[in-house]
Specification:
The protein has nine helices and 15 strands. By secondary structure, it is of the alpha/beta class. 42% of the residues are buried.
Length: 284
């Protein structure tokens, strides 16, 4: 295994790339403000003939994600399409009509149920659980849900996780996501279905959207993923068979502070399977 260096520009990696699958939170914005140079980089790649699919573990439909991006100043021209774990979760609900749902998550995620035959009930009456996040991610952690999850386990309920992320940036803080609750339920012995990175269905959907936009399939060797999480972005890209540009300004920023080059041992310790390259923040 060779050393892993930082690169300065996205254009140094895209000579043989037709499709970019870019993470959103941590790459394009931090939940409070967008990153103009990252948006410009993706837009420029598109202007030069590339296709950009934003691939996100947001537990909301793509149109809701788009509205949030607009509020943060991310122009529609930055990308070709969005695929979210919320969309895939909606497909699960649609495939189970008439079943009752116990929902764990904040009110802002309610769009995940919009237009669906989804009946929300207390845990004791539910057929399965959907977790889009914590009720109050400013103050809670997964441990606050242990008693609820033990009751769900006693009823052998399946938990559908609409956001496999454990934590995400919000400004300069890290907050817990639905993945933290889902992992605790799995540790307790519960059955969990994950939608989103690093699981394969979200990548398959992203490539289907890329094929629609380009009018033809793209070889995986000509696809580059961009992300800031080892657990979701890097693992998902590796398992799907595509390269990843790892952005270090995100949730792992403290681990990379002051580092200019990683030796082989550090690469293996931090990543396991190394990304194609490192970049502090996305620039063209």
């Amino acid at each position: 295994m060779t050393s892993l260096r930082f690169v300065e520009r996205l254009r140094d990696l895209t000579g043989d790339v037709d499709v970019v699958l870019s993470d959103i939170w941590g790459v394009v914005h931090n939940g409070l403000e967008s990153f103009p140079e990252a948006c410009e980089a993706l837009h420029t790649f598109r202007q030069r003939g590339g296709t950009v699919i934003l691939i996100t573990n947001a537990p909301r439909p793509a149109d809701s994600v788009q509205r949030q991006l607009r509020k943060l100043g991310v122009a529609d021209e930055t990308y070709d399409a969005i695929v979210s774990s919320g969309d895939l979760t909606r497909h699960f609900v649609a495939d189970h009509p008439g079943q009752k749902i116990f929902w764990i998550g904040p009110e802002r995620d309610s769009s995940i149920h919009r237009g669906l035959d989804a009946t929300m009930v207390p845990l004791e009456q539910a057929d399965y659980i959907i977790c889009t996040g914590l009720f109050d991610d400013e103050t809670e952690s997964a441990e606050d849900y242990r008693d609820t999850l033990l009751k769900a386990l006693a009823r052998k309920l399946t938990l559908v996780c609409a956001n496999p992320d454990i934590v995400v940036e919000r400004g300069d803080r890290l907050i817990y996501c639905a993945g933290a609750v889902a992992e605790l339920y799995r540790e307790l012995g519960g059955e969990v279905i994950f939608y989103g990175k690093p699981h394969r269905p979200i990548y398959e959907r992203a490539m289907a959207l890329a094929t629609e936009r380009r009018g033809r399939p793209t070889e995986l060797s000509r696809v580059l993923a961009i992300g800031d999480s080892v657990r979701t972005d890097l693992t998902g890209a590796h398992n799907f068979g595509i390269d990843l540009l790892f952005v270090t300004r995100g949730i792992h920023s403290e681990e990379f502070e002051g580092i200019e080059q990683l030796d082989p041992a550090s690469v293996k310790e931090l990543f396991g399977h190394p990304p194609r390259a490192l970049m502090r923040e996305l620039k063209w």
